[in-house]
Automatic annotation (TrEMBL), chains A, B, C, D:
Its EC number is 1.2.1.38. It is an enzyme of class 1 (oxidoreductase). Belongs to the NAGSA dehydrogenase family. Type 1 subfamily. HAMAP family: ArgC_type1 (MF_00150). Coiled coil: none annotated. The gene is argC. It comes from Metabacillus fastidiosus. This is N-acetyl-gamma-glutamyl-phosphate reductase. It is found in: Cytoplasm. Catalyzes the NADPH-dependent reduction of N-acetyl-5-glutamyl phosphate to yield N-acetyl-L-glutamate 5-semialdehyde. Its main location: cytoplasm.
Length: 345, 345, 345, 345
């Protein structure tokens, strides 16, 4: 396969490239950048010195149509809105890592993202690329909306109990924590080292653009789900997301039953690891890998369930999941080139 | 005043000593340690080189009765149970930073702490030292149970809406995050650098010993309060606690009303800073200080309130609050020697 | 005293303000900022909420001449060059934390700083504010060039053996390491969290602008000193500088003799702590304080000496030393308002 | 190949296992542990959940002789001294990651390690496994002494100029910095998070046991080399070593000549990346990989050279280099299963 990455100079793009360099089905990977065209990729990312001697290329839609089988968009919000419509009728399959194609309802997108939505026909074509819930649709897709980092951890944590009708639909509270790399490679005071180190913040309270994405996915599983509480915290670490999820139980269920239900739910999903009962995942335990690790625990005192779900935001939360989708749409084994052990410590 | 610190070689003890060294009402501060008696304090804490030439002393109850006006216990669970009863009838006032005297109900203590409780008469004598809720009782106290770190942040965050009958009593969920210094100065694999750095964990799920302390304090404010959900996360930083609190509103209330209600509630409390609406505190903004910073926000979509409360766990969560109590029981201004600006960055 | 700070919205300015707020001789402290005039200081630094309600003021030279006794310049290179000449003939004493006034030789400044130097008469007026070497001159000064962070740690580490004629003058090698706050509060990719965390870099190899400042100071102590090797490393921490210094011994000297020589050299200097033999300082042991901690050790195998010198770059390396100079030029005790214990851990 | 790892529950062992799990020539990898025999490996290292279901085995020399082709010893000092002699006459090839077999001179070992050395015949048999200097000997070896972390970075940084007779033999100064994982997985106060975070220390001044290893290797390249100055610093990060090296030039040489000389020296070595002139490596740029990145720069002012050499201490400094040696002694391509791109950020 010949693949391309637009936005290769961001963290998501670099992580994609790291995976695709060793992917057995990828023959060639072309890196595009509007701002840094004609420079060596290793000028941006010297950690790839002597591994890659790739020169960044300018974005040329006609060239892409001719040379690329699958195009990854690892770009900020708004770029996909511009590029995707131009390629929609070509043979190029697209996996879009941005949020532009995830929200089916244009008004919702515009309310939460505060920018104009992509035109409806393009949105209709896009398949939400969360393989654990959506594998069959993805197989036939030409255009993938790759999920956001918080939604991936959160939806995978909630899917079994939401679909299984185990919790009260109005009771979902998600307390999410993220490392800083999710903010991208641009510079800002808010993400500078001296402001983040030895510090912890809450941000975008009740306003995070990932809320409608999570609610949309949950409603596909159970249309009675109501608005969720969702808050996001910035943690002094580079990679890693943890969603701690709380919900009221609708009926009595034991830890063992709940745990077994999760094990069954994900038994065909190689990247979800439902951890043994009473063992809780730490973010470092999925570091650099495509795993989503989940633990569940009933609280007898409050009749609530606590769910912990962790991912590496650049892997299962972005580039890893994109390659997982790439494998599925091309009929490869889901974990081809992607079954990387986490790096610990 | 002549003061003593038992457990001076832990982090809480060191922080107490840092404050008391500059406290204008403290004439002499004696440091006790059973394990390191007769060694220089600066052997344990060289950051105090040339500031202190104190030699650690062995614990001698009779000597303490004679020489000490106020004794701080900065010791692990169990030590106070042994020492406090021996001093209860002396003139020595005691401020106990451990959890031993906080839980009035012995069965609750024994269930959550998994060790034998202090005898009931001693427990009955102990006053819970959260000045913002309890100032009048503290003034007359001889024996103070200094609150835990998580309870301080959590109870101060919740007190106004719990007392004000604003939220549903069964709906309280607290997602708490802490830096590592709360685990103390002992060594363990779980708190070693390589295991904590670039990592985040949840721990003691549904089992944290601070749960009964929080519930006891909330029930004093509003006896209808039911069991709370409380989870604790270990964050890769040394100091700082954040409690993110969620609760269902009982009635309509605007952000402005809620914010004003908090401002009024704490208007006599110099160490609680209710932050301006839409400004959220970060833990570094109270670093090294005795402040508890709080933000409140109503979520119209879910009819819930989100409250964020941050402290420095070694200050307002331990040593700082202990000195605040020391000031109150001695009739000094509440912020004497304690009005330290946070260190930023 | 009425004092002013220009550049109050940087880290150095904020640290100055933290100290001066509690300084017993400071009656009023006015904060100036050209870029953020007329905004609340706590909008920039919310950690000072309710401690300060100061509104930043625009820079007005005439107003300063009228209202300010001592003016601190906590500004980037170039600003002092513009402001200082306008105040040089007023009654305002100036303490300049930038590098503009430190290098007496204009050609050296222009070579290393790559910008135009201040006019010679102003340079001639400026006294280099390293009190441990220069106390008498500072007492009479009206214009202080406050030393750089690396120079402070390095010169204090080297002064005794350079003046004492103990080492070969061509053999000085300084391997310096710094936390990130020295880079200031501006945002840049190079100092963003994801680039610094879990990473270590060398930078400005053989080109750091602090080289001529160090050499100038050493030559005042011993004119035979030759060019030094000086390298700087960026360490994943916010505060702290360590200079590890190597030099060839000219003659046999024991550890005990060397250590005693250092103790004597600094016996009148309250902020230099020569640590006991075989005890080495860590940067955290001076965190938030104005101390410079030094250890010395002879290596019998190589006939070299190793010296370790640590400071908090924002304190003894900037704001703390500026207040030390402020105390000296005003005839106050050198440690007035400044004898703060380090914050540990 | 059937391989075994003794000491699999340490960080070096875990990193070996991570690599060997994906190594195309390894059919089976058995993990041994005396202290945790008969427990699941994932109980120690849950990041490998569902990747490994290996049960740790007790150490049984006879079983090893029968079942194992190559045995890795990832054990603390002293263990190899006990195990290696028992296997020396078997068919098992041994790669020892500890320091026990590195020092040929028993007296040197005993002086620096402060424990009894291995018997001389075993030491004589051991080949020092630094492939870039020693590839031909390693090909024929049966017993490999895998180099230490600091020696690997330092010797590779120095080898060209030492062998090339470019520097004065008495002038070598090495200022080394390391992340904390090099201290292993045991718990100690000195490596606990609260003591390391936001802190930097120098340790083992003039006493580090890696000194004789470095000097021995350098003397093999140039017997005139004299005692080196070598200091080690603990940096608040988990992985990564940087050696900053200073030496006096014997003769004039330009940056370009020196750089070219290094390029040539390492042209057959796939894991040494001599970085382009004026580009300096950061430790994160080799994170999780087996690369050693080197930069060189002449200082015209001092007639010295500065060399910067970085590795991941658990990879090129331990497990990665061990697998590199494994490949060489078995006649595989040197980078088989090991050409992993660094993880960034």
């Amino acid at each position: 396969m010949k693949v391309g990455i637009i936005g290769a100079t961001g963290y998501g793009g670099a992580e994609l490239y790291r995976i695709l360099l060793n992917h057995p089905k990828v023959e060639n990977c072309i890196l595009y950048s509007s701002s840094e065209a004609n420079t060596l990729y290793t000028d941006s990312f010297p950690h790839l010195s002597e591994i890659s001697n790739h020169v960044l290329q300018g974005i040329d839609i006609e060239e892409i149509k001719k040379n690329i089988d699958v195009l990854f968009l690892a770009t900020p919000a708004g770029v996909s809105a511009e590029i995707t419509p131009k390629l929609i009728n070509s043979n190029v399959k697209i996996i879009d890592l941005s949020g532009d194609l995830r929200i089916k309802n244009r008004a919702d997108y515009e309310k939460w993202y505060k920018r104009e939505a992509v035109e409806q026909p393009v949105l209709d074509e896009a398949i939400y690329g969360l393989p654990e819930l959506n594998r069959e649709e993805i197989k036939k897709a030409k255009l993938i909306a790759n999920p956001g980092c918080f939604p991936t951890a959160t939806i995978l944590g909630l899917a079994p109990i939401v679909q299984g009708n185990i919790i009260k639909e109005s009771s979902i509270i998600v307390d999410a924590k993220s490392g800083v790399s999710g903010a991208g490679r641009g510079s800002s005071r808010a993400t500078s080292y001296s402001e983040i180190n030895e510090n912890m913040k809450i941000y975008k309270v009740h306003e995070h653009q990932h809320v409608p994405e999570i609610e949309q996915a949950l409603k596909r599983l159970n249309e009675s789900v109501e608005a969720i509480s969702f808050s996001t915290h910035l943690i002094p670490m580079t990679r890693g997301i943890m969603s701690t999820i709380y919900a009221d139980l609708k009926r009595d269920i034991t830890d063992e039953e709940l745990h077994e239900f999760y094990k069954q739910f994900y038994k065909e999903s190689p990247f979800v690891r439902v951890r043994p009962l009473n063992q809780y995942p730490a973010t470092k335990e999925v570091y650099g890998s495509n795993f989503c690790d989940i633990a569940v625990k009933v609280d007898e005192r409050t009749k609530r369930v606590t769910i912990v779900s962790v991912i590496d935001n650049l892997m299962k939360g972005a580039a890893g999941q994109a390659v997982q989708n790439f494998n599925i749409i091309n009929g490869f084994e889901e974990n081809t080139g992607l079954y990387l052990a986490p790096l610990f410590p």
